[in-house]
Design goal:
single chain, Glucose Permease (Domain IIA), ten-stranded antiparallel beta sheet, 34% helix, alpha+beta, 12 strands
């Protein structure tokens, strides 16, 4: 080999060495640059994870809330440690998201209440009490009226006296009936009005049937209905013996004598 060829080959080797060196340098620089970018990306992920961790700590108890100090600690850790911590933080973040999702209120469908069965109003049965009414105990002419504030002349006594009832003319043995529903209070021989029956009615009323011939149709304490036979017309009243056969009939309201003609129907 000539000297010229030798230097030519040596130049080629130098050029190859230069090219190889440049290529190697570029490769190293590129690797360093790529590695720095990757490391920077990991750091950004770590910082984001730490921020997320701060959010986790506000929800999940017993978590590290060191905040910014964790950033500085992360910078001193190796890539493997950062990756491990990032994976842990991502797991915690997923747990937080799941927890918050579970807390979201679930819309409940409004319950449709079934209409309650309408209950028919209870009917209050109030007992209707009709006013008491009275009928004439016998049919006949009134031959002596009621008089408590004026005086009437008595043919038997031959004097002017009061008259607490009415005298209804009727033949002897004419049937006498109860003027209204009631209870027989008494049956007695009155020295003035003869055989007398007294009946107690409701609303404070009493009726008195005097100058009777008989009274065996009823007994004291017996409950009787309106129109029930209680006796017969007679002539037993000593104070009215001069008059024609009649029934002496009286009505008492709350202890006071009242005019029977105002109540008889």
């Amino acid at each position: 080999m000539s000297r010229r060829d030798y230097f030519r080959e040596e130049n080629k080797l130098k050029n190859v060495s230069i090219v190889f060196g440049v290529t190697l340098a570029i490769t190293v620089i590129a690797f360093i640059y790529i590695f720095s970018l990757y490391n920077k990306k990991l750091e950004e992920n770590a910082r984001q994870s730490i921020l997320d961790l701060g959010r986790i700590n506000s929800v999940v108890p017993n978590t590290d809330t060191s905040g910014i100090s964790l950033v500085s600690q992360t910078e001193d850790k190796g890539i493997n440690e950062v990756q491990k911590e990032t994976a842990v933080n991502e797991t915690k973040l997923e747990n937080v998201i799941a927890l918050e999702t579970a807390k979201e209120p679930v819309e409940e469908k409004p319950k449709t209440e079934e209409p309650a069965e309408e209950q028919a109003p209870e009917e209050t049965l109030e007992e209707v009490v009709e006013p008491i009414t009275f009928t004439a105990p016998v049919n006949g002419e009134i031959i002596k009226d009621f008089a408590t504030e004026t005086l009437l002349y008595s043919e038997t006594l031959e004097e002017w006296t009061v008259h607490n009832g009415i005298d209804i003319k009727a033949p002897k043995t004419t049937v006498v009936v109860a003027s209204s529903d009631g209870v027989v209070e008494s049956i007695k021989n009155d020295p003035r009005y003869g055989l007398t029956i007294t009946i107690t009615h409701r609303d404070g009323f009493k009726t008195v049937y005097a100058n009777l011939l008989t009274a065996e149709f009823v007994s004291q304490g017996q409950t009787i209905e309106k129109g029930r036979t209680i006796g017969t017309v007679g002539e037993t009243a000593s104070f009215e013996i001069s008059e024609d056969p009649h029934l002496h009939f009286e009505m008492i309201k709350d202890g006071e004598y009242v005019n029977p003609t105002l109540y008889l129907k």
